[in-house]
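Posting this for the archive.
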Amino acid sequence: MLARQRQAIILEEARRSGAVRVSDLVERLSVSDMTVRRDLDVLASRGLVEKVYGGATTIGDRSTDEPGFEAKSVQQQGHKEAIAARAAELVPAGSAIGLSAGTTTWTFARALAGVADLTVVTNSVRIADVLHESPQPGRTVILTGGVRTPSDALVGPVAVQSIRNLHLDMVFLGVHGMADGPGFTTPNLTEGETDRALMESARKLVVLADHTKWGTVGISTIADLADASAVVSDADLPGDARATLSEHVGELIVADVPSTPEEAGE
């Protein structure tokens, strides 16, 4: 198979699912790891995909662009794990918390394994599955109903109504973007409404967002920066973002991200 044929297949798959993994492409195309990586380099140089750790994603820059869950799950994995571990330290045993849908909050859900007696409300089937896979004594998981979005959130009137009857200690919110002015945003109008209901049900709002979210603006504002009791981000958050967030949010928490040889070689 010629290189341009492989690259066409790779691009078609990336556009279909939102992301591709090197390991999957090696098996599908029956070529070496290095061949796939060279093809991804070519596509990235042409502005057709964005390389990420372990693969690539399609490129979207509009305020209504919403990558699917699989596409987002391969982005900034190490950063999300560091954020999740740091955020889990904020959760006392016996709390009632809310988790919005998203890959960062999904990673955070896995970090809650050591917290006992939790009640967790979420509008994400994937997060509910994670919590059920690692059961803890006294844990209760409440899954809202609703209509499913590309990011695997359950949204709409059913979700909003179920959330508005609840009273939570804190909500952990994943966002599409954050910026001075627009605040915390999402590319999905209906998801924004559901996230606002979740935020309003809690005494504290904690936003989980890696450094790439700074400066990204979705079509719908979920909350102003000042509405957040805390923002947990990573050490790659730029200085201007740190200054702005420190000025507006209750507390900015920066998680250290351990480097790996694989990431250094990307």
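The longest strand covers residues 168-174. The chain has eleven helices and 15 strands.
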